[in-house]
Amino acid sequence: MVLKDGITGFFQMSQRKSLPHIEMETFKKEVSGSLAQLGYRLLYFREAGVTPNFHLVVFGKGGERLGVICNSIYPVVALVKEIDVGVCELRYIEDENVENLIESNTSFYIVSTADLDQELTSGALKELNEAELRQINYWKPQTIGEVVFNWWD
After folding, report:
1. Beta partners for 64?
2. Which among 20, 60, 109, 145 has most CB atoms closer than 10 A?
3. How far apart are CA 76 and CA 150, in angstroms?
4. Is 47 exposed, middle or buried (0-12, 13-18, 19+ CB in 10 A)?
5. Among 26, 29, 24, 25, residue whose Cα is nearest residue 52
6. Contact 25, 72 (CB under 8 A)
7. Alpha-carbon gap, residue 135 to 53, rounded angstroms
8. What count of Cα atoms within 13 Å lies in the side-chain half-sphere of residue 115?
9. Distance between CA 79 and CA 124 in Å, rounded?
10. With contact defined as beta carbons under 8 Å apart, do 49 and 21 qualify?
11. Cβ(72)–Cβ(57) under 8 Å?
12. Strands 64-71 and 41-46: what pairing?
C-alpha cells in the first residue's frame, strides 16, 4: 500500500497552503446513517485535532460497542474496538456487514486490518512529503496503520 502525500496531517508550508480535510459532520452523518440499518446507534464522537489525526465515532448495539475512525485528510476508514481514553493504541477489527454497508452507502473507503498491519516499507512512503518523512523518522512507526491513524504532534 502506497501512502498518499499528506495522510499523516503534516506538510511543508513552503510547498502548499493546506491539505484536504474530511469534515467530522459529513463522516458522522454518512456512517451513522449506514450503521442504523444494522441497528447501531451513535453513542459519542471525537473530532480530530492536533492529535489524533483521525475522527472517531462510537456506536452501540445491545451490549456491543463499535468504533469507526476516519483519517482527517483522506476518506480512509477503519473499524476499531472502543478506544480507551489516554491510551494511544488502536485495535483494528473486521466486520464484513459493517464494512460492506459503509463502502456501498458512503463516500469512505475501508482499509483492511491486513493492510493496516502491514510492515512499513520505503515503498509505502515514496509519495509522502518531507515533513511527513521527518515525523516518521522521529516517531518510528512500524506499520501502515501507525502512519495513517496517529497521535503525532
Report:
1. 61
2. 145
3. 13
4. middle
5. 24
6. no
7. 13
8. 15
9. 22
10. no
11. no
12. unpaired
Mean pLDDT over residues 57-64, rounded?
Answer: 95
How remote is the C-alpha of 56 from its chain's centroid? 8
Cell of 93: 477489527
pLDDT tens-digit series, residues 65-102: 999 999 999 999 999 997 776 778 899 999 999 999 99
Which tops the pLDDT comparison, 17 or 111? 111
Dist CA 18 CA 28 (whole Å): 23
Only one residue has cell 493496516, namely: 116
For residue 41, the cross-strand partners are 60
